[in-house]
Write a structure and sequence with these properties.
By secondary structure, the protein is of the alpha/beta class. The chain has 9 helices and 17 strands.
């Protein structure tokens, strides 16, 4: 395997030497804040290979870790929290302080996001302070302001802004719209929403959603396809890096034309639709989240694809119920990986090719070890889709024994 530093030019934005690049020293978002990017890649690659080695996974071919096309300003979504940095202190809006969940730091100069995100954060915080709105307290469950969610279509330049509050008070939505829409931004705000969340759990959601301006979605383009992305829908956070990973995954499938493809844990169906657009005979996506399935179906129609369909349900049960036999299985599970019972069902389908996309090297290695009696690992590659964080993604090509 060649050295990690050779894996990518990083879009000309590589960090050449250590040094603080961000003023938010106590923010818990960036573990490798002061680590040169080439060294970050080496650290992540070593951890990835160690996870495989500890489970006795010996791929026939290992490729060097792929760096992110963008090192800075790569995130297309941020879920900011309202709070205070010190108990009883001024209102803040941003990220939780490292190892102090109740403390929130105003992160208005973050370098992992487009500068428009920082402008929006600062403007909404000023708006909230001027009106005396109080932050929702996670212990007492009292207060109004909970989150600000900003999302961006990287290839379209569209912004979706969503203020999340409790129902314990009123927001001047007209004044909020005036503040947001009057900002001098490089991108364009296509939607402004106010979501109400009274669930005591610290999960960003909207039990009720009110549209203040524009659309309740933004548009993104990836792999030649268009996608509507709604306020709380899942979509890859680093679009440029995800596109590179997906292109790699699809390019490893031998002759996809006319083949039956199962896309399991398909989310909004990005991979299934890409497979369908590239000539698969049938692409079937399975996902347990109803909103994601609805989005997948809508986007398949938007992209004019009739050779794919999407099923809502548990992967194991839904896969067992399918009469079709897959030629190819695409796996893109959550961080915990695939449960052994579901994995047994997947392996029993006897697809000739499995392409496994993972966001957790440890769960990937565990699953690959489980699959040894069915498949051999033909090729594997780690991807750094989240520079300065500890997260590593990977794609593995498996061939039936």
């Amino acid at each position: 395997m060649k050295p990690a530093a050779e894996a990518s030019s990083h879009g000309g934005a590589a960090v050449s030497e250590a040094g603080a690049f961000c003023p938010h020293a106590d923010c818990g978002g960036c573990r490798y804040r002061d680590v040169p990017y080439a060294e970050q890649l080496a650290i992540k690659e070593a951890a990835f290979l160690r996870a495989l080695d500890e489970r006795g996974i010996l791929p026939a071919e290992s490729l060097a870790i792929a760096g992110s096309p963008r090192v800075f300003a790569y995130r297309n979504k941020m879920e900011y929290s309202f709070g205070d940095e010190n108990k009883g202190g001024p209102l803040t809006l941003g990220m939780h302080r490292r190892k102090r969940f109740m403390s929130v730091i105003t992160t208005d100069r973050c370098r992992l996001v487009d500068e428009d995100f920082n402008r929006l954060l600062a403007a909404v915080l000023r708006f909230a302070k001027e009106r005396g709105y109080a932050a929702y307290n996670k212990k007492t469950h009292r207060g109004l302001l909970r989150n600000l969610v900003v999302r961006k279509g990287v290839r379209t330049g569209q912004l979706l802004v969503n203020l999340v509050t409790s129902s314990q008070g009123d927001i001047d939505e007209g004044a909020l719209a005036e503040v947001v829409l009057s900002l001098a931004l490089e991108n364009r705000v296509v939607g402004l929403l106010h979501s109400v969340n009274d669930n005591p759990g610290d999960f960003v959601r909207g039990e009720e959603q009110r549209l203040i301006f524009g659309n309740n979605y933004y548009l993104e383009e990836i792999m030649g396809l268009s996608f509507k992305v709604s306020a709380f829908a899942f979509f890859q956070t680093n679009v440029e890096a995800a596109a590179a990973l997906y292109e790699t995954a699809l390019s490893w499938i031998p002759d996809i034309a006319e083949k039956t493809v199962f896309d399991l844990y398909c989310g909004a169906g990005t991979l299934a639709q890409a497979a369908a657009a590239r000539g698969a005979g049938l692409a079937v996506g399975i996902e347990i989240v109803p909103e994601s399935v609805a989005a997948a179906r809508e986007n398949a129609t938007l992209n004019g694809l009739s050779n794919c369909r999407f099923l809502e349900g548990d992967v194991r049960a839904a896969t067992e119920g399918l009469a079709e036999r897959p030629d190819v299985i695409l796996l893109d599970p959550p961080r915990a990986g695939v449960h052994p019972k579901a994995l047994r069902t997947i392996c029993d389908k006897r697809a000739q090719t499995v392409v496994y996309i993972s966001c957790n090297p440890d769960s990937l290695a565990d699953n690959l070890a489980f699959m040894r009696g069915y498949y051999r690992v033909r090729r594997i590659r780690a991807f750094d889709n989240f520079p300065f964080t500890a997260h590593t993604e990977a794609v593995a090509l498996l061939e039936a024994l």
